[in-house]
Amino acid sequence: MTNPYSNACDEALLDRYLDGDLSADEKARMEAHLEGCRQCRRQVAAIAAFSQDLRDRVQQATDSVDFMALEKQVLNKALRQRRSRGGLSTFIGSLKYTIPAAATAGLLLFFAYSNYMPKTAPVPSAIINSFTGSMSSVMIFETPETRQTILWYNEDTNTESEQDAV
Amino acid sequence: MRFRFPCLLMFAILMLSWYGAPDSLLAKESCRISVDTILAARNDSGIDPQLKRHIGELQSMFNYTSYRLLSSESLNLRVGQSGMVSLPGDRRLKITLHQIHSRRADISLQMMKQKRTVFQTQIQLLNRGSLFVGGPKYQNGNLIFKISSAY
Fold first, then answer.
1. B128 φ/ψ sector (left φ>0, alpha ψ -120 to 50, else beta)
2. Which chain B residues contact residue A102 at CB under 8 A?
3. Has residue A148 got a pLDDT over 70?
4. Boundaries of every domain in chain A
5. For B13-41, b where at least 16 C-beta lie within 10 A, e where not — what string?
6. How far apart are the C-alpha atoms of A40 and A45, rounded to whole Å?
7. Nearest-angstrom CA–CA distance, B3 and B5
8. Cβ–Cβ of B121/A131 closer than 8 Å?
């Protein structure tokens, strides 16, 4: 029934009628055809019943679902994923600056401590392992604080200068 | 930023490995030895500005009123090498560098006056440390030789 003006059965046109896609003229003619065609009326009735049954079942299925709870659940899940992704990226982003900063600070502290911190126990500036000479006297001593080693000798036989000096 | 962190990390590793490396790997072969000749006297007053930093503690031990820097001489010695420094009063100081350890240098000193050896000594001088050798009379005071090493 490709031609809506003929009176023969056309399944495609019938489907369009059931879907409500026919123009007013086509619809009027299809209804006129249905009045005279028992087979098409049965088909229309069967399809209508099937559609109604399908709608009822879908309705029942959807009625059993709590859409508010489902929406909340989906939203929570999405937010959790976003938070975890954001947290990780933030953490990685912060590492880009934190690690170099920490390494630099550590190096500065390390070298500052080893080079500039006062030594707790200063060592003698010089250790005299041996001493030989032809002189009247010699003294070896060190300053009390920084332990600067001092070697004081008297070339002369007269020891007055040594006694005067120290 | 992509290259900055690896570069910094590499720098840190190099510095730490340099600092912690065994002395044998970083053994120094030469040493700079400087000899400052100071005249300590009682008649004058005043301290040479160049000496203020070095003789602060000596002042409390000696009763001199003035310290004057007469001369400064430096030698760059390799291990096994000797150098001679001329000192006032026809004196000479022969310095021989024997060995360099991590913190100290083994040095021998031979003090001569005219052609006579006054004394000779073997010392271990701290890196950037000083030995003060003093006593000889000169002009109106006494000479002090500040012998320092740096490597």
1. left
2. none
3. yes
4. 11-63, 66-117, 119-166
5. eeeeeeeeeeeeeeeeeebebbbbbbbbb
6. 8
7. 6
8. yes
Q: Worst-scoring range by mean pLDDT, A21-30, A79-88, B17-26, B112-121? A: B17-26
- The structure tokens 């600056």 sit at A97
The Cα–Cα gap between B19 and A83 comes to 44
Domain ranges within chain B, ordered by starting residue: 26-150
Q: How far is CA B70 from the centre of its chain?
A: 16
Which residue in B4, B57, B133 is closest to A151 by CB distance?
B133
Instruction: Say yes or no: B142 contacts chain A, CB-CB below 8 A.
Output: yes
Cβ contact A96–B5 (<8 Å): yes
pLDDT digits (tens, 9 = 90+) for B52-91: 777 777 888 888 888 888 999 999 999 999 999 999 989 9
Distance CA B141, CA A165 (A): 9
Would you call A126 and B16 a contact, using CB atoms and an 8 Å cutoff? no
Mutate to test the interface with B, among A107, A127, A139 (most CBs of B within 10 A): A127
The secondary structure element, H or E, covering residue B138 is strand B130-138
Q: Which helix (H) or strand (E) holds A66?
A: none
Q: Does A150 touch chain B (CB under 8 A)?
A: yes
- Contact (CB, 8 A) for B120 and B108: yes
Give me the pLDDT at residue A166, please: 46
Give residue-wise pLDDT tens across range A37-78: 999 999 889 988 998 899 899 888 888 888 888 888 899 988
Strands B116-126 and A126-133: antiparallel
Distance CA(A31)–CA(B122), nearest Å, equals: 130
